[in-house]
């Protein structure tokens, strides 16, 4: 009998006890440093997006102001051209002579000096 007991003990030593492995569900946990990293990345992303939108709004306002100024410049150029045409019409020789006669001035050919450029 003792021989049988020794054989059983030897078998147990040779064969490691095989227990079925229990698969545990591993909980996904973040460390404090990882949490801080994710929060800081999220805050940076929000800050960057706000900055981009803010810059776009300011660019839009500047472009709008530039377009308004260009429109005002075009209007002033048009007005200046109209005034130039009016000056050309009012400075004709016939009109000046007519206005001079209305004011009682007369044309004396002897006192006329011709200026050439």
UniProtKB/TrEMBL annotation:
<protein>
    <recommendedName>
        <fullName>Cell division protein FtsL</fullName>
    </recommendedName>
</protein>
<dbReference type="GO" id="GO:0032153">
    <property type="term" value="C:cell division site"/>
</dbReference>
<dbReference type="InterPro" id="IPR007060">
    <property type="entry name" value="FtsL/DivIC"/>
</dbReference>
<keyword id="KW-0812">Transmembrane</keyword>
<keyword id="KW-0472">Membrane</keyword>
<keyword id="KW-1003">Cell membrane</keyword>
<keyword id="KW-0132">Cell division</keyword>
<comment type="function">
    <text>Essential cell division protein.</text>
</comment>
<dbReference type="GO" id="GO:0043093">
    <property type="term" value="P:FtsZ-dependent cytokinesis"/>
</dbReference>
<dbReference type="InterPro" id="IPR011922">
    <property type="entry name" value="Cell_div_FtsL"/>
</dbReference>
<dbReference type="GO" id="GO:0005886">
    <property type="term" value="C:plasma membrane"/>
</dbReference>
<keyword id="KW-0131">Cell cycle</keyword>
<comment type="similarity">
    <text>Belongs to the FtsL family.</text>
</comment>
<dbReference type="Pfam" id="PF04977">
    <property type="entry name" value="DivIC"/>
</dbReference>
<keyword id="KW-1133">Transmembrane helix</keyword>
<feature type="region of interest" description="Disordered">
    <location>
        <begin position="1"/>
        <end position="20"/>
    </location>
</feature>
